[in-house]
Amino acid sequence: MSELIQIVDSLENRISKLLHKLEVMRRANTELENELISIRSVQQQADKSVSDWEEKYNSLKLASSMLGSNTNKTEAKLKINTLIRELDHCIAQLSE
To answer: Which residues form a coiled coil (predicted)?
Structure first.
């Protein structure tokens, strides 16, 4: 009978340890999830910043080519043609 009590005590002890480990893992998981949310937020801000800088760079490059820079004249012409096509499309939609 005492052997059975020892087995039960041993099982209770193991279960207690497992429950404690489970709680520790849950806390660690929650901390990691919060850290992940924070990192994703920082990543989104960085992506937006990169996008803004790329847009500014392209605008500056276009303005430079329009001011007489020979390096990007074809790109400027293509951009102007694209803008004209977009305007024509808008005018066509308005006239319908």
So the answer is: 1-45
pLDDT per position as a tens digit, 20-75: 999 999 999 999 999 999 999 999 999 999 999 999 998 887 777 676 656 667 77
CA 81 from centroid of its chain's CA atoms: 33
Q: How many CA atoms lie within 13 A of 39 on its CB side?
A: 6
pTM: 0.54
- Say if residues 76 and 65 touch (Cβ distance below 8 Å): yes
Cβ atoms 60, 72 nearer than 8 A: no
CA separation, residue 84 to residues 29, 32, 51 (Å)? 54, 51, 24
d(CA 19, CA 13): 10
Q: Which residues in 36-65 are b (16+ Cβ under 10 Å) and which e?
A: eeeeeeeeeeeeeeeeeeeeeeeeebeeeb
